UniProtKB/TrEMBL annotation:
GO biological process: protein import into mitochondrial matrix; protein insertion into mitochondrial inner membrane
Annotated protein name in UniProt: Mitochondrial import receptor subunit TOM70
Cellular localisation: Mitochondrion outer membrane
The keyword Phosphoprotein belongs to this UniProt entry's keyword annotation: yes
Keywords per UniProt: Acetylation, Isopeptide bond, Membrane, Methylation, Mitochondrion, Mitochondrion outer membrane, Phosphoprotein, Repeat, TPR repeat, Transmembrane, Transmembrane helix, Ubl conjugation
Length: 611
């Protein structure tokens, strides 16, 4: 969405995560989500919502909506409760795992129908434990046949046990069928629901799998790691699948002018984002002189630059194309500018050949080549190719070692890769080359803070917090400094002071939508004030109606309030604005999670607690 508080990231770049994530800059990131590391987890191999669980991140921040309400429960949680199979007791209680014991008491029911059914089941359990699954199935089938039909709980256990035996033989259809019988007889039977979820996963019925595992998570109050991991896995697969399809056929979308300006402002050694030079402009007087206006007429690139100054962004790609087709004087600049706008509208596959061409132009200005490498490196990072990304940044540093942008953007990449020491070195180099770079100083502070926070070292946390104070004293006009400090203060539960920092950001950048979203999230965490939170996020949308982060956050709040249909509507708005396939996949996961809850609520009358 609107970058990260003026602190734009490249279109669609993954958002980084820490305690809450920093709003990082465009070569790389922004404020609301962790990047998915190549292994599929977030920065430390964990998914977004797990990071929220583990770090106790602010409610909602960077977390998959579905499991937020389980946050506290999960942190108290018992870890992975292995499920014992098969069921040894006669009947699970309505909550699933326990039991009401044997309804008729042992001694006198030896030869009653239920007693004979129990005996067949016990025999089946012995075969099961001995690994003789076919024989176990025969015994459980006999137990089902003998059991009086009104003994729902016992009957559900027998079906569940037979499903466990089928599972050992990998007969997934039979597993699902028997679990369905068990759940019909005992609707909140956790063991049967979870076993059916696993069977649906094997049968590639992702939607059904997600519904079952959502019900299990709610019934278990988020105490069981196994079910939460399965939910996360299915949500990611569904998200990826849907995003792939949707992204292929999406309409390219120009971001808001605020986002574009904020994106370009993160580069200082960038020729294409500098204003037109005097000699290039054709104002009224120059038109009379003839010569300059002729260059202007014939140079698509110079016209594109003029449009850029007028914020007439939609015409830039076509003007650059004219310059490139004419093999004009500004061909390298036109390729780079066109690639940049392709990235901004989310069309990475069109941007790549342009960037490749600029990078390979040995005779082009080295600043253009370095800038193309930064942008290609960021693109690789958002496509989850950190090795290629690192190669591009290293090559940029080799060919243009005095280019501060290279170190600034590479520093952000290193934060994403959890290489904090290297990130700090890069920020230091950027500061050495450009001592007045407030952004690099603020982000260096955030990197040091994040390192201290994750290492739980109170002294270094204090030192990092003091670092922020120094930065805002030294650079009182740098909104990023206040924004990053506010996020660190929020972690430290210093909510009042964090709120003041966001107000300072808003004074400096009143049209920055993302700051309003962060301030809105703060109201929730600080005062549980949903109305104030939503009011601030609505204000963000008013400022920038293309801010996907605002719609996503609003959707997550609506999930918390139990307004699932409204949440789904908000997530869909964010999906249509997403700038990369990865971002879109994350949003689809949130949307599917909310949808699964509506289905579970309808079927089982189960709702997670709302705020």
């Amino acid at each position: 969405g609107g970058g990260s508080g003026g602190r734009s990231r490249p279109p669609g770049a993954p958002r980084v995560s820490a305690a809450p994530p920093p709003p990082l800059l465009p070569g790389v990131m922004a404020a609301s989500k962790p990047v998915e590391a190549p292994g599929g987890g977030g920065a430390a191999g964990l998914s977004r919502w797990q990071l929220a669980l583990v770090l106790g991140a602010p409610v909602l921040l960077g977390a998959g909506a579905i499991y937020l309400w389980g946050r506290r429960a999960a942190r108290r949680g018992k870890g992975a409760n292995e499920r014992k199979t098969p069921e040894g007791r006669a009947s699970p209680g309505p909550g699933g795992e326990g039991g009401s014991g044997q309804p008729d008491g042992p001694g006198h029911e030896e030869m009653s129908p239920l007693g004979r059914a129990q005996a067949a089941k016990n025999k089946g359990n012995k075969y099961f434990k001995a690994g003789k699954y076919e024989l176990a199935i025969q015994c459980y089938t006999e137990a089902i046949r003998l059991c009086p039909p009104e003994k729902n709980l016992d009957l559900s256990t027998f079906y569940q046990n037979r499903a466990a035996a089928y599972e050992q033989l990998q007969k997934w259809t039979e597993v699902a069928q028997d679990c369905t019988k068990a759940v019909e007889l005992n609707p909140k039977y956790v063991k049967a629901l979870f076993r059916r979820a696993k069977a649906h996963e094997k049968l590639d019925n992702k939607k059904e799998c997600l519904e079952d595992v959502t019900a299990v998570c709610i019934l278990e109050a988020f105490q069981n790691q196994q079910s939460m991991l399965l939910a996360d896995k299915v949500l990611k697969l569904l998200g990826k699948e849907k995003a792939k399809e949707k992204y292929k056929n999406r309409e390219p979308l120009m971001p808001s002018p605020q986002f574009i300006k904020s994106y370009f402002s993160s580069f200082t050694d960038d020729i294409i984002s500098q204003p037109l030079l005097k000699g290039e402009k054709s104002d009224e007087d120059k038109d009379k002189e003839g010569e300059a206006s002729e260059v202007k007429e014939n140079s698509g690139y110079l016209r594109a630059k003029q449009y850029m100054e007028e914020e007439n962004y939609d015409k830039i790609i076509s003007e650059c194309t004219k310059e490139i087709e004419a093999k004009g004087k500004y061909m390298a600049e036109a390729l780079l500018l066109r690639a940049t706008f392709y990235l901004l509208i989310g069309n990475a596959s069109a941007a790549k050949p342009d960037l490749d061409q600029v990078i390979s132009m040995e005779d082009a200005n080295v600043k253009l080549r370095a800038n193309a490498l930064i942008k290609r490196g960021s693109m690789h990072m958002q496509q989850q190719q950190p090795v290629m990304s690192t190669q591009d940044f290293n090559m940029a540093a080799d060919i243009d070692p005095q280019n501060a942008d290279v170190y600034h953007h590479r520093g952000q990449l290193k934060i994403l890769l959890d290489q904090i020491e290297e990130a700090v070195e890069d920020f230091d180099e950027c500061i050495r080359l450009r001592p007045n770079s407030a952004l690099a100083q603020a982000q260096k502070c955030f990197a040091l803070y994040r390192q201290a926070y994750t290492g739980s070292n109170a002294l270094t946390v204090q030192a990092a917090m003091k670092g922020f104070e120094d930065v805002i004293k030294k650079f009182p006009r740098c909104a990023e400094g206040y924004a990053l400090y506010a996020q660190a203060l929020t972690d430290q539960q210093q909510f009042g002071k964090a709120d003041e920092m966001y107000d300072k950001c808003i004074d400096l950048e009143p049209d920055n939508a993302t700051t309003y979203v962060h301030k809105g999230l703060l109201q929730l965490q600080w005062k549980q004030d949903l109305d104030k939170g939503l009011e601030l996020i609505s204000k963000a949308i008013e400022i920038d109606n293309k801010c996907d982060f605002a719609y996503e956050t609003m959707g997550t709040i609506e999930v918390q309030r139990g307004n699932l249909d409204k949440a789904i509507e908000m997530f869909n708005k964010a999906i249509n604005l997403a700038k990369s396939e990865m971002e879109m996949a994350h949003l689809y996961s949130l949307c599917d999670a909310a949808y699964a809850q509506t289905e579970v609520a309808k079927k089982y009358g189960l709702k997670p607690p709302t705020l």
